[in-house]
Amino acid sequence: MDLYQIFIQLIIFLFGATAIIDIIGYWPTIKDLYIHKKYSANSRSYELWASTSGVSLLYGIFILEDSLYIGVSSIYLIANLTVLILTIKINRTKN
User: Fold this and answer.
1) Which of these, 12, 4, 9, lies nearest to 71 by C-alpha position?
2) pLDDT tops 90 at residue 6
3) Does position 58 have pLDDT exceeding 80, yes or no?
4) Which of 6, 64, 75, 90 has the fewest beta carbons closer than 10 A?
């Protein structure tokens, strides 16, 4: 395997790892919202991030047709929607 192929495999691995890093990054906010019922997220930001990650997912499905990209984009979308839904739920409970 030449250096270029090693580099490509490293990029593929690192891109896949971003999904795990994303879950770790979202966990404190999800924990605050779900377990502690503590409002800790700006719903407008998560609306924007959910919509952009949704577009990225659709791009992966219909344009790239790349399973790794689709998987990572799906995790981003699920994380954003989870935070958004929990934030909306807490806001409705408070009102």
Assistant:
1) 12
2) yes
3) yes
4) 6
Separation CA 52–CA 56 (nearest Å): 6
| Global pTM value | 0.90
Break the chain into its structural domains and give their ranges.
Answer: 18-94
Q: How far apart are CA 17 and CA 19, in angstroms?
A: 5
pLDDT-derived band at 95, boundaries 50, 70, 90: low
The secondary structure of residue 38, as a DSSP letter, is -
Q: By CB neighbour count within 10 A (0-12 exposed, 13-18 middle, 19+ buried), where does 21 fall?
A: exposed
User: What is the maximum alpha-carbon separation in the chain?
Assistant: 61
Q: How confident is the model at residue 39, as a pLDDT?
A: 80
Q: For domain 18-94, give the fold.
A: Monooxygenase (1.20.1280)
